[in-house]
């Protein structure tokens, strides 16, 4: 479907942008660690539409704030009784990381939905740090003061800024799916993943592999020392009812 600006405006007005949830697990044990929130547009005729068809359009037309508002509002509400040992990860648009309104927005949605910010991880991509680094750092500091954790998303794809990893005090590093996809067949990718895991360990960051689809990838990641994974092997992004069912199915810790 070809999406125009007015379609997104209408979708936001009609409350059609909803959160899906994808599980993140500890690779070695398969234990659930949390969920990443991924936006879906529940279109009345075209069904769930993927973010690549609307996120950048929303970003370039000043609508990303409203989109985040809807997503977080619904996600926090769906996750307000999330067991304390589990986390919820949300994606912050690079544009929002360089605006001063993001921490306040998240704070007020958490307040109104009774969601604990201690369980929130805000995922930021490297591109976020190219817009306005000082504002991004200020936002990161405020989010941190509110109790949130920070993850660097898609690590290895942008201008990998090792300095930012340290100066912004990230808690978690998500290894981009492109490396995981080629890791079991290309020695280069395997070496890169090994190097990223080593770097993360020395900086005390948790590593999360993205796009893990096979047992072979999971085994190699365990061998490389990567701690957590997300991908179809463990579950696709699904609606809030599925998240609740997965939590209910977990053995009591
Ligand atoms: P991302 O943050 O890197 O999210 C991971 C993407 O990988 C998701 O695509 C997910 O469905 C997909 N994925 C997960 N496991 C697998 C797997 O095993 N194999 C493969 N091939 N793919 C897998 P999705 O949901 O289409 O989202 C794409 C991107 O859109 C996200 O990439 C994120 O950058 C952005 N996005 C999604 N939701 C939001 C949102 O609420 N706000 C903002 N600002 N951006 C969002
Ligand atoms: Ca992400
Ligand atoms: Ca990612
Ligand atoms: Ca990505």
Automatic annotation (TrEMBL):
The lineage of its organism: Bacteria, Pseudomonadati, Acidobacteriota, Terriglobia, Terriglobales. The chain holds residues 1 to 253 of 572 of the full protein. It comes from Terriglobus roseus (strain DSM 18391 / NRRL B-41598 / KBS 63). Residues 1-251 form the EAL domain. It comes from the Bacteria. Transmembrane segments: none annotated. This is PAS domain S-box.
């Amino acid at each position: 479907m070809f999406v125009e600006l007015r379609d997104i405006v209408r979708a936001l007005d009609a409350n059609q942008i909803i959160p899906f949830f994808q599980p993140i697990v500890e690779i070695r044990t398969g234990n659930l660690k949390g969920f990443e929130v991924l936006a879906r547009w529940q279109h009345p005729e075209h069904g769930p539409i993927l973010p690549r068809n609307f996120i950048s359009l929303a970003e370039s037309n000043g609508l990303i704030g409203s989109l985040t508002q809807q997503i977080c509002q619904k996600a926090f509400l769906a996750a307000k009784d999330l067991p304390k040992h589990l986390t919820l990860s949300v994606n912050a648009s690079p544009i929002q990381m360089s605006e001063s309104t993001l921490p306040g927005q998240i704070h007020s949605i958490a307040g109104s939905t009774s969601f604990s910010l201690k369980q929130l991880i805000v995922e930021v991509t490297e591109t976020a740090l190219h817009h306005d680094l000082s504002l991004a750092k200020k936002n990161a500091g405020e989010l941190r003061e509110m109790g949130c954790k920070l993850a660097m998303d898609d690590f290895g794809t942008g201008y990998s800024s090792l300095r930012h990893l340290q100066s912004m005090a990230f808690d978690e590093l998500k290894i981009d799916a492109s490396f995981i996809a080629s890791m079991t067949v290309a020695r280069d990718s395997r070496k890169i993943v090994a190097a990223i895991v080593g770097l993360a360990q020395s900086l005390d960051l948790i590593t999360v592999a993205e796009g893990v689809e096979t047992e072979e990838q999971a085994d190699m990641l365990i061998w490389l020392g990567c701690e957590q994974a997300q991908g179809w092997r463990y579950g696709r992004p699904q609606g809030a009812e599925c998240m609740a069912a997965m939590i209910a199915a977990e053995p009591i810790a």
